[in-house]
UniProtKB/TrEMBL annotation:
Membrane topology: Peripheral membrane protein
All copies of domain SRP54-type proteins GTP-binding, residue ranges: 275-288
Compartments, as annotated in UniProt: Membrane
One term under GO cellular component: membrane
Record has GTP-binding as a keyword: yes
Record keywords: GTP-binding, Membrane, Nucleotide-binding, Receptor
Interval of the full protein contained in this chain: 61 to 362 of 362
Protein name (Swiss-Prot/TrEMBL): SRP54-type proteins GTP-binding domain-containing protein
A Gene Ontology biological process term: SRP-dependent cotranslational protein targeting to membrane
Organism: Acorus calamus
GO MF term list: GTP binding; GTPase activity; signal recognition particle binding
Family of this protein: Belongs to the GTP-binding SRP family.
Length: 302
């Protein structure tokens, strides 16, 4: 399925582990673990996690708890799964019980924000959810047009800025109010993503968040940060900055189909303690998948 094919490049990187473990024997442990660590590093698990995993395997091997290559492989899968789930945070959307729920989508331009928002609308519509989109990227002229195309494609209603001077917080606040009045289930808010020294993106995002909360106490229910999966570990500083400033509740990792650096999924969850909620594994409407840690581990280390 698309989760498996979406991670095929990362899986190719990690396939060497199977060969290593097939011929593993006790006297060969150091060399095999060195190469296993290298395979994890190449797939962007990051040094901290790669060392942690390998050292835990080493101590279990030396203690006689792991006796065959396939036991080592299972232990490896288990420890990756544990890293993804130990923080206990929910990978599904937490939308509360009051309607509309508000999802704010943030992230820098080019990461796949608009595409993800469109795919998310499509997914929600298919679940029978009444979705209202809000074009909160008022900075980039083409952004509203692009989102309108997605609204049409998914049969969603959309609120766009009226007049050139309309500001993002007011567009989002209008959308949330309309969502409330007209009985929408979810308002999906796009935001600006322009990183530029003279432009206060973070200030604008804070203002957007406040405007949403004024229109609907308790909202936004989710603030999803879209991260470009092809950037691997380089996404970490960006994730930290967004989180410190707006408080991220979940990640959407895009373009993982084009990336052999899928291990970054594990490092971003471990470093920030925030769950990945969706992964983008292609350009089609269906290629935004809810993140399932177990399916992910099976896809990269089958
Ligand atoms: P934005 O500037 O953050 O809104 O980025 P866009 O949504 O316009 O996406 C930038 C490019 O990345 C587009 O060409 C998308 O089709 C592409 N893209 C987005 N998500 C994915 C994905 O999961 N896989 C692949 N292969 N391409 C993607």
């Amino acid at each position: 399925d698309s989760l498996f094919s979406g991670f095929s490049k990362t899986r190719e990187n990690l396939a060497v582990i199977d060969e290593l473990l097939l011929y593993w024997n006790l006297s060969d442990t150091d060399r095999v673990l060195d190469e296993l660590e290298e395979a994890l590093l190449v797939s962007d698990f990051g040094p901290k996690i790669s060392i942690k995993i390998v050292e835990s395997l080493r101590s279990d091997i030396l203690a006689g708890k792991l006796k065959t290559g396939s036991e080592i492989k299972d232990a490896l899968k288990k420890s990756v799964l544990q890293l993804l789930t130990s923080k206990g945070s929910k990978t599904d959307l937490q939308l509360g019980y009051r309607k509309p729920a508000v999802i704010m989508v943030v992230g820098v331009n080019g990461g796949g924000k608009t595409t993800s928002l469109g795919k998310l609308a499509y997914r929600l519509k298919n679940e029978g959810v009444k979705v209202l989109m809000a074009a909160g990227d008022t900075f980039r002229a083409a952004a509203s047009d692009q989102l309108e195309v997605w609204a049409e494609r998914t049969g969603s209603e959309i609120v766009i800025a009226e007049g050139e001077k309309a500001k993002a917080p007011s567009v989002l606040s209008q959308a949330v109010k309309r969502g409330k009045e007209q009985g929408y289930d979810i308002v999906l808010c796009d935001t600006s993503g322009r990183l530029h020294t003279n432009y206060g993106l973070m200030e604008e995002l804070i203002a957007c968040k406040k405007a949403i909360a004024r229109a609907m106490p308790g909202a936004p229910n989710e603030i999803l940060l879209v991260l470009d999966g092809t950037t691997g570990l380089n996404m970490l500083p960006q994730a930290r900055e967004f989180n410190e400033i707006v408080g991220v509740t979940g990640f959407i990792l895009t373009k993982l189909d084009g990336s052999a650096r899928g291990g970054c999924v594990v490092s971003v969850v471990d470093e920030l303690g925030i769950p990945v909620k969706f992964v983008g594994v292609g350009e089609g409407l269906d290629d935004l998948q809810p993140f399932d840690p177990e399916a992910f581990v099976n896809a990269i280390l089958s």
